[in-house]
Amino acid sequence: MDRETFQTCCSLVKSHRPCYEKLCSSHLINYIEKKDFSYSKFFEKYVLPNYPCVFSGRFTEDWNSRKQWVTQEGKPNFQRLLQDFGDALVPVANCNAKEYNANPKKIIPFKEYVAYWKDYIQNGHSSPKGCLYLKDWHLHREFPKHNVYSTPVFFTSDWLNEYWDAIEVDDYRFVYMGPKGSWTPFHADVFHSYSWSANVCGRKKWLLYPPGQEDNLRDCHGNLVYDVTEPILQDKRQFPRYDKSCQPLEIIQEAGEVIFVPSGWHHQVYNLEDTISINHNWVNSCNVDTMWQYLQRELAAVQSEISEWRDSMDNWHQHCQIMMKSCTGIDYKEFYMFLNIISKNRISFLHSFGGDTGSSRIQRPHDLSTLGPHHAVFDLNKVAQVLECVLSNEEFKKLDRDSLSPRPEDLLQKIKEATEKTPL
């Protein structure tokens, strides 16, 4: 991020309120063709306004996965995939079955899935086993030495994976592989994060709805629709607000192309051909407040669900935090730890940028050097804003504050000192 973009974004982030009506009425989406498109333009035109866009195949043409995982005919290279990953265990979902509002999954050997996929193709894309979709495979974590792709610079301000890499527990980097006809039901991504998805081979159809439209796609009980193409949506008794919903943005994503899905946009995705894709979920300074708002809503839902035990259950508030974490993967304490790691990395980077050689020995993401000190300051300013909201939250105040290190007030002070001392 350069100085001009920093100043522009600082002013926009205070006053900007995304307006999606024009985008939905025009059904236009920007297509970024040339590789000289800058990170600063992407940040200003798409990340801050929270608008989707598509990058051309030029941005992935050097990936080893596009060279090695794809045949000359543009199909999945099963021989090479089996050679590299045949014995791996992978999560596979059945697209023909519904479990709550998702497809049930099971873990099977990758070679077993490839055998199924080959039979599925030979039988005219059908099988008595149903349509099976390999989803959410943590290939990057399981095979770190396989250099099959590189994250485009536009998506490198990735706080989620920066945090999980730091604590070495998990990640939000996934590989998807599925036959023609496999699909993902209507949903928004984890924590209402951003996502980017690149087709290594094959084509996808995306149906996207901007934030707020999902409320028109709930049934009379408040449940989100499973499939936005279901005829039952026309039943006003079941879906009383459906006639108020806009038409979705429909995007056909070709092989090699990368789609940016903004924060909180609900979507449904179909594989139009046998397809392999790579996907990251990510959070940064522009949607960390959205993540915090999401967590507050999730906690409120849990508290409402078990409200009858509020007075009779010991440590009721603590139990609510535990239940929320079991549903979302994170609680208020870990959200604070998340903010702390992100802040620590940027404060360390700014110290080394200012000549503090001791701080330069602290390990931090290499992407900070690419994005620069303006971006680090922008990030810290936003962490400080969110942290102030966290500190004033009544449920956060009920946590065991002695277990938090550093104390939230001390972290906030460190952030302010680091940004004030940085010459930009």
TrEMBL record:
GO terms for molecular function: 2-oxoglutarate-dependent dioxygenase activity; catalytic activity, acting on a protein; metal ion binding; sequence-specific DNA binding. InterPro entries: Cupin_8 (IPR041667), JmjC_dom (IPR003347), JMJD6_ArgDemeth/LysHydrox (IPR050910). It comes from the Eukaryota. This is 2-oxoglutarate and iron-dependent oxygenase JMJD4. Residues 140-299 form the JmjC domain. GO terms for biological process: positive regulation of translational termination. Residues 401-424 are annotated as: Disordered. Pfam families: Cupin_8 (PF13621). It catalyses: L-lysyl-[protein] + 2-oxoglutarate + O2 = 4-hydroxy-L-lysyl-[protein] + succinate + CO2. Belongs to the JMJD6 family. One of its GO terms (cellular component) is nucleus. Its cofactor is Fe(2+). The keyword Iron applies. The gene is jmjd4. It comes from Acipenser oxyrinchus oxyrinchus.
